Give the backbone structure.
Amino acid sequence: MDKFDRIYELHNILRNRRTPISRPDLMERLECSEPTVFRLIRLLKDRLNAPIEWHEEPGGYYYRRDAEGGTWELPGLWFNAKELQALVVFDRLFESLEPGLLGEHLAPLSRRVAELLQHKRLGLAEAARRIRVLGMAARDTGEWFHLVASATLQRRKLRLSYRSRSRDQTTERAVSPQRLVHYRDNWFLDGYCHLRKGLRTFSVDRIESAREIEEAADSVPDGELDEYFASSYGIFSGKANKTAVLRFSRERARWIADERWHPQQAGQYLTDGSYELRIPYRDGRELVMDILRHGPEVEVVSPESLREEVRGQLEAALARYPQRQGE
């Protein structure tokens, strides 16, 4: 009998009794030791909020009944939204994982996840059919992902041939990898660039060639990495030095007020029902793209440079739609 079966069995024992049951009786019926009984009871009480109480006189456990005399029922699903999402995403990632660096070591974990999803007590057998994880605009990681991942984990320097999208130019550079980042369904490498003498983010799919250098990677403290890569908006890194002030229409406010654009954002409803959102950023490219998604439902209040960038993008888009004759 595994842990999940024992929890259900303990629940059924307590639910169907009118009198307390002693610890030795629970040990016998659950086929487990006294410490295991304590752990199961603590799990039911602390994680599932079961109303288990201890009766001193007969020395036993029982369920406290509600005002109508009814007993508590065990929830059918024990995962919260984030846990369930992580479990299903993990299973999906394993399905698409090609044989490589981590496959052999992660295989036992993959099997355990599959067992959890199929466990009859958890009711997750339908997860594969009933829960969808949708990716959007994902790019192929290319042939160098495994080598980059290996160097990152083994703390080795890399020699990269990298073709940037912004300039469409290829450069050769030595990089000390710091972190691999999965962001918006794509992989990025955060590293210290020895060519530029600073921290940079590289899109893994734009690496044209890579090889390990027989040198240990320079390590950058986690606090410095977080300050540089996480303080500004999106994947374009650098310490934030500007604040975007965006004003969304009353209709769009119902969505925006519940969205998290940035860990340090600040938002408030205005008197006319619109919603003002303040976001720290440094490089406006990704922020502009996200603003444009909302079309006429958003206005950039400040800074003026961001306002002009969005205006220019909208004017350029409108120029592609000249009025046709006869319209």
